[in-house]
Design brief:
239 residues; mainly alpha; Ribonuclease iii, N-terminal Endonuclease Domain, Chain A; Double Stranded RNA Binding Domain; 13 helices; 3 strands
Length: 239
């Protein structure tokens, strides 16, 4: 067992991953576990996979993100901070980080998951990134996890507003792929003075209320509602 761990730990892809993370593990078994999908563990009759580390990493990522947003956006109200946090730790964003780290290439997947394109699945990539962060936390503590994740936070710090324009298009492609009718955006309320209006919109998909959003313009509120639906659908796919 120890020999196998040493071989895994010294492999070129794992060494490259640690360089990209900017963190070198003291306990190689944690990194190995964080890259082990349930399908691989089941096929090899292994006791553990990355799911428990993913559970831990989800909380670690949320805490680091909340702290960073609190410090870097002192003028934002709690509701706006929550929206920024929701975007920053959303499945599409975490999956993009995982892709740039090359996690999909080195995950240990079972044969069936491999054949079904598991290395490119957005939900799987996001989960694996959280698992790796959970492993970093156990191996080096919160300070180490913060050092690893902060570059990702800085990268997306200006992205939420600029990325919103893609949400309606992304949602339209998703529902068309399912054979559903196009999303319907219902303007349900507006509030505030003329110079500071807030618009509230619901997004309905397949005859059901699938998400909601608000913004300073109707268009922004629609985009936020679409983003909420995209994220909700991603969560359902991963459950």
């Amino acid at each position: 067992m120890l020999r196998a761990l040493r071989k895994f730990f010294r492999s070129a892809p794992i060494d490259a991953l640690q360089r990209r993370l900017g963190y070198h593990f003291k306990d190689p078994s944690l990194l190995e576990k964080s890259l082990t999908h349930r399908s691989f563990a089941n096929e090899r009759d292994l006791d553990e996979n990355y799911e428990r580390l993913e559970f831990l990493g989800d909380t670690v990522v949320g805490l680091i993100t909340a702290e960073w947003l609190y410090r870097h956006h002192p003028d934002l109200a709690e509701g706006d901070l929550s929206k920024l946090k929701g975007y920053t730790v959303s499945e599409p964003v975490l999956a993009r980080h995982a892709e740039r780290l090359g996690l999909g290439e080195i995950l240990r997947l079972g044969v069936g998951e491999e054949r079904s394109g598991g290395r490119r699945k957005r939900s799987l990539l996001a989960d694996s990134l959280e698992a790796v962060l959970g492993a970093v936390f156990l191996d080096g503590g919160l300070a180490a996890a913060r050092r690893v994740f902060l570059p990702f936070l800085e990268e997306v710090s200006e992205a939420p507003e600029s990325d919103l324009h893609d949400a309606k298009t992304e949602l339209q492609e998703l529902v068309q792929g399912e054979g559903w009718a196009l999303p319907e955006y219902r303007h349900i309320a507006e509030e505030g003075p003329d110079h500071r209006k807030r618009f509230h919109v619901e997004c309905w998909v397949a005859g059901r209320r699938a998400g909601a959003g608000e913004g300073g313009t109707k268009k922004e509120a629609e985009q936020r509602a679409a983003r909420a639906v995209v994220e909700n659908l991603g969560k359902q796919d991963s459950s």
